[in-house]
Amino acid sequence: MALSQAEVLVGIKEIVEEVAGIPAASIEMDKNFTDDLDVDSLSMVEVVVAAEERFGVKIPDDQVSELATVGDAVNFIVKVSA
Amino acid sequence: MSRRRVVVTGLGATTPLGGDVATSWSALLAGQSGVRTLTEEWASTIPVTIAARVAVEPSEVMERVEMRRLDRSEQFALIAAREAWKDAGAPEVDLDRLGVVIASGIGGVTTLLDQYDILKSKGARFVSPHTVPMLMPNGPAANVGLELKARAGVHTPVSACASGAEAIGYAMEMIRSNRAEIIVAGGVEAAVHALPMAAFAAMKALSTRNDEPARASRPYDKDRDGFVLGEGGGMLVLEELEHAKARGAEIYAEIAGQGLTSDGYHIAAPDPDGSGVQRAIAFALRDSGLTTRDIVHLNAHATSTPVGDVAEANALRLALGVDADQVAVSATKSMTGHLLGGAGAIESVFIVKALQDRLAPPTINIENMDPEVTINVVRDKPRALPAGDIAALNDSFGFGGHNVVLAFRSY
């Protein structure tokens, strides 16, 4: 069953808070992982692996570089969960 | 042109006796032991169940998010370096002339082993992308270098239990040779884990006095049975004398010279004739322009192993000659345990404090002095050091036959 955008966003917020220490409340769909949230390339790997585990999806390595914003990640996960 | 002189203008430490220099030093003078019974579940699976963990967990002074990207040894390095840099006045310096030299004997061994557990239990995908920067032995130096934006050079000499002292000597040479004006130098270790402890136990190097943790580390005592593994780190800010004076820095002591030799004898056992140690002391004296008569205090390597303590003591007696009797010898590992690559660094911090306070710290747990040890050991209580210009030596030796002796002078 497809996940909703809202529930994926909640999950991504928690993961980014855990990995990068950014308060969940300040994480929005339009935030850029690198520029706004201080998630560097190594930490992005952590975010991806944690998201895969949490949502039971696969995020291929060649897709990761396309996920610039929180919204990109949320929408991708919603799409592949369908 | 006369040789550039190097002074100590900052100190930092996190040790089994305290989370900073002041707390560690006062506990040391009070003769307290930092050795405890391990409470981890794995401790029951190995023959040694005691160790000297740091008195203040990094989580008490460091943000969670920062901690999770750092090996424990890197956490110790940053904690001690921050204290030392602040103690030096957090000076604005030319970053091209700022260096970092921080050693570790073993590197990020707990990261390596923890990630191997994850690899086996969950698979390759779950191995942390931070693993390599966390386990590399230069990680502590690299992280401190990044924080301070040091650009004169970031280095990590490795010589087992002599690593911390070697790092400080390397930093001194960097300043002497005009590669840098100011350097954060020291050593760290974080190896309290089942595997390294089982490995040291397999060598019969660790004390098995599990039922009396505070009395297990007993250098020079007749019934010593091995060292107690410690963790933590020590840092010194070393600075070119004129650079320190120009910015009005408080100068704690001078690092006057070093002597380095190798035994060429055995991979782990000390050379019983101690010639490598004697030569290192002679080189350190010559390099620093000191004589045996100037030396009033020595922080010995003395780890509490049956063979090592006597070999070193015999070498000291020979190297210091008739002046050996006036040298107050302290074996502070009796209280801190053995910090491996951090040992030479925290002991250098203690020497600088001893020169400043004119107090040699005690050696605890000597109930029956080994009759083969004929040097002048400071027992039970601190001993006053003379007024005037005084100097002290720091001995550090490592598996592999590495001998490092640092010479410090009051300023």
SSE arrangement of chain B, N to C: EHEEHHEHHHEHEHEHEHEHEHHEEEE
Uncertain spans of chain B, ≥5 residues at pLDDT below 50? none
> How far from one another are the termini of chain A?
6 Å
| CATH top level label of chain A | Mainly Alpha
The main β sheet of chain B shows up as: 10 strands, mixed
| Tally of separate helices of chain A | 4
Strand order of the largest sheet of chain B: 5-4-6-7-1-8-14-13-9-10
Judged by helices, strands and strand pairing, the structural class of chain A is: mainly alpha
Distance between the termini of chain B: 22 Å
Q: What class, by secondary structure content of chain B? A: alpha/beta
Kindly state the percentage of residues in helix of chain A: 55-70%
Quaternary structure of the protein = heterodimer
**What percentage of the residues of chain B does DSSP assign to strands (E)?**
15-25%
C-alpha Rg of chain A (nearest Å): 11 Å
The CATH architecture classification of the largest domain in chain B is: 3-Layer(aba) Sandwich
Number of strands of chain B: 14
Anisotropy-based shape of chain B: globular
Element pattern of chain A in H and E: HHHH
Mean pLDDT of chain A: 94
CATH superfamily of chain A: ACP-like
CATH topology of the largest domain in chain B: Peroxisomal Thiolase, Chain A, domain 1
Strand and helix map with partners:
The complex is a heterodimer of chains A (82) and B (411).
Chain A: H1 5-20, H2 41-55, H3 61-64, H4 70-81
Chain B: E1 6-14, H1 21-29, E2 36-37, E3 50-51, H2 64-67, H3 72-87, E4 98-104, H4 109-122, H5 131-135, H6 139-148, E5 153-155, H7 163-176, E6 182-189, H8 194-202, E7 232-240, H9 241-246, E8 253-262, H10 275-288, E9 295-299, H11 306-320, E10 328-330, H12 333-336, H13 343-357, E11 359-360, E12 383-384, E13 391-398, E14 402-410
Parallel strand pairs in B: 4-5, 4-6, 9-10, 9-13
Antiparallel strand pairs in B: 1-7, 1-8, 2-3, 6-7, 8-14, 11-12, 13-14
Helix pairs in contact in B: 3-6, 7-13, 10-11
